[in-house]
Write a structure and sequence with these properties.
The protein is mainly β and about 425 residues long. It has 3 helices and 20 strands. The radius of gyration is 33 Å and the shape is elongated.
Length: about 425
């Protein structure tokens, strides 16, 4: 219908044959789902809903008995269901529509496709043709005697036309001698009567495809079964697990190669909740279709419930060709029995070696200073405190006396007093 390849194109009245347009667009069932997995492009969903109401949009949400949308950047979503009140279908317009979760077309199962459950006179697929026309920016050809659809090649039409009248059909707009273009796909006639989009309508739809819906033209969903060359994903979160007993943990993720090229490099981004993201570059040799675990640098967060996010990017230092399978997430809980702040305690003394123990560090490294009783800084530096909570300082070069150890661990400050006494 969109390419003027419909078998009934010849039935368009001769007076409008020269006005008929062809948008030169191809529709296809998706070859890849949003996770990059091969798909038939069709999801079958069992529901307890006997019907779906037009006004609630409930068919577009899994938790309301329907099915969640796939990202409208890469897909045209079509929901087929039992629409209430005998509504044939409805669609979202592209202008101003940024709601990824509701964008698309809904069609009553009795007016969808050709054959099957479709019933005459709506059994030639033209409900989809009509509604996708809306999705591509077209409005109805009727609605008053002014130019309601902004197309001069569709005659003014006062009211929608139903059934399948004879040509010409003159209405209240006094559009003699040819009457209204009731066979236009954007009217309400029976499927068997519809057979034309005009050149103006095709120009509008082409404009929408070049602006609001331009990303569809390069969608990796795969009309021709596109294979991705460089496509990495964080497919599984291995750690954190459900419950942690420390504020710090070593994240571990599974990275999968969903592309054809062997992945030699990938950047992993990760964060907890809305904290500042961290990034980790890793070199590897991951062949197509294989996966590997990757441990990331230590990460710290507070007690309570959290969500850990990790994602892949820049496989082989280039653009990931399918971004919708990049990210995974995992909810976890830091037990409330964990101390809320880092603490520093004296551990023991062996000769000149003074040992201290850090509890619940809020960072992987502690910046420290050793200060004498009159405030002079005797020693400073950094010590790792996550992997080894106990650290030791050699005081053999320092005189007997009282000293203080001051430390900064992430967002915590710690302090401990100790004494050096030699016989």
């Amino acid at each position: 219908d969109y390419n003027r390849l419909n078998a009934d194109a010849s039935t368009t009245p001769e007076v409008w044959q020269s006005s008929a347009g062809s948008i030169d667009v191809q529709f296809c069932l998706a070859k890849y789902d949003p996770d990059g997995n091969e798909t038939s492009g069709i999801e079958y969903v069992t529901t307890t809903n006997s019907s779906f109401d037009y006004s609630s949009d409930s068919v577009k949400f899994t938790d309301k008995g329907g099915a969640d949308a796939w990202p409208n950047k890469n897909y045209l979503n079509i929901w087929v269901c039992n629409l209430a009140d005998n509504v044939l279908g409805y669609a979202t317009l592209p202008s101003g529509n940024t709601l990824d979760k509701t964008d698309g077309v809904v069609i009553r199962y009795k007016s969808f496709g050709r054959g099957g459950t479709a019933l005459a006179p709506y059994n030639k697929g033209r409900t989809a043709t009509h509604e996708v026309g809306h999705w591509l920016g077209l409005v109805h050809t009727f609605g008053g005697c002014s130019d309601v659809d902004d197309c001069s090649d569709t005659p003014p039409e006062d009211q929608p036309v139903y059934g399948c009248p004879s040509f010409p059909l003159i209405d209240a707009c006094n559009n003699t001698p040819n009457g209204v273009m009731f066979m236009n796909y954007m009217d309400y006639t029976d499927d068997g009567c519809m057979n034309i989009f005009t050149i103006c309508q095709d120009n509008i739809m082409t404009g929408v495809l070049n602006t609001f819906r331009k990303d569809l033209k390069t969608s990796p969903a795969g009309c021709q079964g596109i294979s991705f060359s460089n496509d990495a994903s964080v497919s599984v979160i291995i750690n954190p697990v459900d419950t942690l007993v420390t504020q710090g943990f070593i994240p571990e993720v599974q990275v999968s190669n969903r592309g054809l090229n062997t992945i030699e490099f990938v950047k992993i981004g990760y964060q907890v909740d809305g904290q500042e993201p961290a990034y980790f570059d890793t070199t590897l040799s991951l062949a197509s279709s294989l996966s590997t675990p990757i441990k990331l640098p230590v990460y710290f967060t507070g007690e309570g419930g959290h969500v850990f996010y990790a994602w892949s990017q820049e496989p082989n230092h280039t653009t990931d060709e399918f971004i919708y399978n990049d990210t995974s997430e995992a909810a976890f809980f830091v037990r409330s029995t964990v101390p809320k702040n880092s603490s520093l305690t004296f551990a023991n003394e062996t000769g000149n070696m003074i040992s201290f123990k850090i509890s619940n560090p809020s960072a992987g490294t502690m910046q420290f200073q050793i200060v004498n009783i009159i405030g002079q800084i005797m020693l400073s530096g950094n010590v790792p405190v996550y992997d080894s909570a106990t650290f030791t300082i050699d005081m053999k070069s320092y005189a007997n006396g009282i000293y203080f150890l001051y430390g900064k661990i992430g967002y915590d400050y710690v302090k401990e007093k100790f004494m050096v006494i030699r016989p």
